[in-house]
């Protein structure tokens, strides 16, 4: 086991917040959130999602921060130090989930690079039919899909191999403000399009008659996926936070930024989709088939297309870096590998694991009645992440509450006013809610 006292650290609180928000603000918000919201009725889904982010997601995030800062290590090592060997499987489950997510995440990340380049040269397609044909031809070309997947994974590796301060923090400090700016500019353009009002109504006017167990499960899975909780990402980042820094206010700020980006992404997509008469429930193809057609009809659309897909590249990289960091940290902390060796081996293995996802949409490779990519997404975000979140909530609320009280306290030892509510949520509310949603939504 490596010396936890010599661990790398974030250089500043803002660096920690931007890196953690970067993990949360990724394809989960800008690619996945709009199409899941579109498939689940729009505004009602958005309302439930926001409620779950702050009422369940944030308390679970704080639980991970407590374990990470006290354990000063990867998910497995931190849980062993603060709770004992019996809880190491919870950390191992998070690492496995990170591997699964990164394997298919890199595939979609590769798509963002390809589409950014296509936007630059103006070859995205002029309508849904042509854009769909181009996307279909692309995903059926395994050499192209795997090539872009490899390029994306290489970029992720190059940042993470440089460490926390010189790699992840520096990248996020530079590019996260760029992401926020591009997103706001795109949203302003979208909501001012003629005919955008119908899209705004779909997105902002909830119809709660559409709420059911599967919708709430989808919202919970989206909240956990976009916040990167339940798999040890926030635990690992929390272990790199200086002990003099608070953890409550950063958690709120991270959840706010995550929700803000997801919400603004919807403002970018739905008004534009409705303005030009396209289908909001188009599934994963909403971004890579419908939006190119939207941009082709929008005045100055080529510029906005370049900005949007470059935005996706940044968002996908900030999240993939956090996933690679979780897995690599295990080998650095527990196996005493060098950072460069750990990141290289993990990135290579995860790339190979992602190849079935890369070829699944074009070659009919299915699992449990879904494409291999969709099956990996479902297993990770709808099964492992909620169960992991439940585990962290129960552990922190029932066994580590004294540590949490200390971590939530100010310099004078006065605990945060949210501590009592946090403990009730972790001990009772979050486990019951996650369990009920999990069982009813999956229809066992």
Note the total helix count: 18
- Residues in helices, as a percent range: over 70%
Shape: globular
Report the sheet-strand fraction: under 5%
Tell me about the largest β-sheet.
2 strands, antiparallel
Tally of strands: 2
Distance between the first and last residues' Cα: 41 Å
Q: Write down the overall mean pLDDT.
A: 87
Q: What is the ordering of alpha helices and beta strands?
A: HHHHHHHHHHHHHHHEEHHH
Radius of gyration: 21 Å
Task: Kindly report the spatial arrangement of strands forming the biggest sheet.
Answer: 1-2
Q: Structural class of the helices, strands and pairings? A: mainly alpha
The stretches of 5 or more residues where confidence is low (pLDDT under 50) are 1-5
Topology readout:
Layout: H1 13-24, H2 27-39, H3 43-71, H4 75-83, H5 88-121, H6 128-139, H7 142-160, H8 164-191, H9 197-204, H10 213-227, H11 233-239, H12 248-275, H13 285-297, H14 301-334, H15 339-363, E1 366-367, E2 370-371, H16 372-399, H17 401-407, H18 419-442
Antiparallel strand pairs: 1-2
Helix pairs in contact: 1-8, 1-11, 1-12, 1-14, 2-10, 2-12, 2-14, 3-4, 3-10, 3-11, 3-12, 3-16, 3-18, 4-5, 5-7, 5-14, 5-15, 5-16, 6-13, 6-15, 7-14, 7-15, 8-12, 8-14, 9-12, 10-16, 10-18, 13-14, 14-15, 15-16, 16-17, 16-18
Considering the chains and any ligands shown, give keywords for the structure.
single chain, mainly alpha
Describe this structure in words.
With 444 residues, the chain is mainly alpha-helical. The chain is built from 18 helices and two strands. A two-stranded antiparallel sheet has the order 1-2. β1 and β2 (370-371) form a beta hairpin. α1 packs across α8 (164-191), α4 (75-83) runs antiparallel to α5 and α5 (88-121) crosses α7 (142-160). 58% of the residues are buried. The model is unreliable at 1-5 (pLDDT under 50).
